[in-house]
Write a structure and sequence with these properties.
By secondary structure, the protein is an alpha/beta fold. It has 21 helices and 16 strands. The strands form four sheets. The protein has a six-stranded mixed beta sheet with strand order 10-13-14-7-15-16, sandwiched between helices. The two termini are about 35 Å apart. It binds adenosine-5'-triphosphate and magnesium ion.
């Protein structure tokens, strides 16, 4: 049962294939060329630098390969004839060549690190920007662990590949090709010996490499499972303690940990075998070449000692790139797979916003015409694309609205209602009836399937989303506070609010007195999501935040559910002052809160089954009456 607690998409077999989002094993990209093309577009700005990198790579390889070739003249022309001044000159030349090679390697690596880090920062920026434009539906259908792993694992592998692998791959390929060419130049026959050995080595790489790849993928999967489990257990510590679940949690962990140990052991064993095996094979190659070459040199005489020394040097170098190439190709493939997932997020359809009507400040003249004004003198007004200004009144109407989060399941069925400016409209009804859903539709978190929602006579789809949401103050059912001071959190409602306005908003929300009792008052720093506050205090801050925004329409979703009745009365008074002449939607389980509403809508299974004011509904002796008097049918 403990395994079941791992959230989908975090543990093994998440929605993104092997390893889930945590694993950056060796998943193959689906569209290698397309994704590489997109990555290249990110690099397009560095064309000049990349050309330089290529040049440096070629020089560095030429130096490595060429330096070894110099052994031939060094021995044949200087050591054997005993020309020691010449030998000294030659050694200086060799040193220069190796130093140049090293300098070029250092140079290209530095450039690549810069290019890689800037590119990756840009990708991260784009991804974050894109995330802000994603519709809520996306977050409903993707776990946060999944999104997080785009930023951590996936961007990390791309960074690794750009930093290192692309350069190494090119360098290894150049070295390998250059070495083979030089070997052919020195002795085609000896090269055959090398080819035979290389063939054997390739088989080893294939077999061991294939296995180790599989084991590494398994290890990644196990890491993902362990991490997901730990994350979940940290988040759920309180619940674990409340239900005495420590032992079960430990057992669950031990199972996953053991699986990780096994996978890790296998992966490390196979990962560790490759190098020594290849190393030994390369010694065998060296010895074989040595014997064959010596016989060859003695027998024919056309093959000098210098030739043999240079050739032996090459035969030592030739096998190195093989293992490296196979490793780098793996890294690049998993980076491309990671990039593919990043681009997938970036290419997700963003929130649609074809609205043209904007929210502006305006003043109404005596003759009834409206003109645009600056922030301090005006009142809110809608500015239509043709320039017409309509004062914002807060008149919200639903006309036969049908909605479901998922097309197949209707959550709201044929909802019609109206809220005239200044009215307080309440929604009541049992859990899951669709109250929160109605409010999410007003600010267009989701698109409705049919019907219309109008705001001051304008279809909400025609209103720019930013404007629409600025005109609505929403206190969400699940509160969220950000890391920062209390004042910062209240100012979240309107970033340019002054300290006085922040405090006024807090007083209005009834939050002032508790804030003053905090250690640093308004400057008290809240930790993640206000963990150091009580539930009710958090709600008060959320209400203060909404009133700081000073919106024409306010939506309070269960905003006062954790607040004592006395504080609630204070808030109500404050709100009444703030909301004079404006529209408020309240959702409350505590029916005393909604008593003074102009109209109460009783929602049941996505339909409004009763509506009217408190007295009407009590007289009707229907569902509201039952809810209010607590007389539920118990069958
Ligand atoms: N993001 C979502 N994705 C899919 N279905 C959802 C989502 N949010 C809510 N639902 C479903 O829609 C229905 C109405 O939910 P809603 O949150 O509107 O209820 P509510 O009346 O606010 O309940 P409560 O009193 O518990 O807050 C429920 O059946 C719920 O399961
Ligand atoms: Mg709700």
């Amino acid at each position: 049962m403990a395994e079941k607690m791992t959230r989908p998409g975090r543990g093994p077999g998440g929605p993104h294939g092997p390893g889930g989002p945590h694993g950056h094993g060796f998943q193959k990209p689906k569209d290698l060329r397309g994704t590489l093309g997109k990555l290249m577009r990110y690099l397009a700005g560095y064309k000049g630098w990349l050309m330089l990198v290529l040049v440096l790579l070629v020089i560095s390889s030429a130096c490595t390969v060429g330096g070894s070739y110099l052994l031939k003249p060094l021995i044949n022309d200087y050591i054997l004839p005993g020309d020691f001044p010449g030998l000294a000159r030659m050694l200086v030349v060799m040193a220069l060549i190796y130093v140049t090679g090293a300098a070029c390697t250092f140079g290209y690596a530095r450039i690549m690190v810069r290019v890689a880090q800037t590119t990756v920062a840009k990708i991260r920026e784009d991804l974050f920007e894109k995330m802000q434009a994603l519709p809520l539906k996306y977050f409903d259908t993707h776990t946060h662990g999944e999104l997080m792993s785009r930023y951590t694992n996936d961007i990390e592998t791309v960074s690794e590949a750009l930093n290192n692998s692309f350069g190494s791959l090119i360098s290894c390929t150049l070295n390998f090709t250059g070495t083979i060419v030089m070997m052919l130049v020195l002795s085609p026959i000896l090269t055959l010996v090398t080819f035979a050995m290389l063939f054997v080595m390739l088989q080893v790489v294939k077999v061991i490499g294939g296995r180790s790849r599989r084991y590494f993928a398994a290890q990644q999967k196990a890491v993902g499972a362990v991490n997901g489990y730990i994350e979940e257990m940290i988040e759920g510590q309180k619940v674990i303690k409340v239900f005495n679940h420590e032992t079960a949690a430990k057992e669950g962990f031990n199972q996953l940990n053991e699986a990780y140990r096994q996978a890790g052991t296998r992966a490390q064993i196979f990962g560790g075998i490759m190098m020594p095996v290849m190393g030994n094979l390369s010694y065998v190659n060296y010895a074989l070449t040595c014997c064959v070459g010596a016989i060859f040199a003695i027998q024919t005489g056309a093959f000098g000692l210098g030739d043999l020394a240079a050739f032996l040097q090459y035969s030592r170098q030739v096998s190195q790139p093989i293992t490296q190439i196979s490793q780098q190709v793996n890294t690049i493939l998993s980076a491309v797979a990671g990039a593919e997932r990043i681009f997938e997020v970036m290419e997700t359809e963003p929130e649609v916003d074809e609205g043209k009507v904007q929210l502006v400040r305006a003043t109404e003249q005596q003759d009834g015409t409206v003109t645009e004004a600056d922030f301090h003198t005006g009142v809110w007004a809608w500015k239509k694309p043709d320039g017409e200004l309509v004062p914002l009144r807060g008149d919200v109407r639903f006309d036969h609205v049908v909605f479901g989060y998922d097309e197949r399941k209707v959550v709201l069925n044929d909802i019609s209602l109206f809220a005239k400016p200044g009215q307080k409209i309440a929604f009541v009804g049992s859990t899951g009836a669709g109250k929160t859903t109605i409010t999410s539709l007003i600010n267009r978190f989701y698109e409705i399937q049919s019907g219309t929602i109008t705001y001051d006579g304008i279809d909400v789809r025609e209103i720019e989303k930013d404007s629409l949401r600025r005109s609505l103050g929403v206190v969400l059912q699940d509160t969220h506070l950000f890391t920062g001071t209390v004042a910062d959190n209240i100012r979240y409602g309107r970033l340019d609010a002054t300290d006085e306005e922040v405090e006024a908003a807090a007083r209005l929300a009834g939050a002032d007195s508790f804030i003053r009792h905090l250690p640093d008052g308004y400057q008290t720093v809240l930790s993640g999501d206000g963990g150091n506050l009580s539930q009710g205090e958090r709600q008060l801050l959320n209400i203060a935040r909404a009133s700081c925004a000073n919106p024409p329409v306010l939506i309070l979703d269960e905003a006062t559910s954790s607040i004592d009745t006395r504080t609630e009365k204070i808030i109500e008074k404050g709100m009444d002052r703030l909301m004079a002449g404006r529209t408020v939607f309240v959702i409350a389980h505590r029916l005393s809160t909604v008593r003074n509403a102009k109209a109460i809508m009783v929602l049941e299974q996505g339909q409004i089954i009763e509506r009217g004011d408190h007295d009407d509904l009590i007289d009707q002796h229907g569902r509201y009456y039952q809810l209010y008097t607590g007389q539920m049918e118990l069958d």
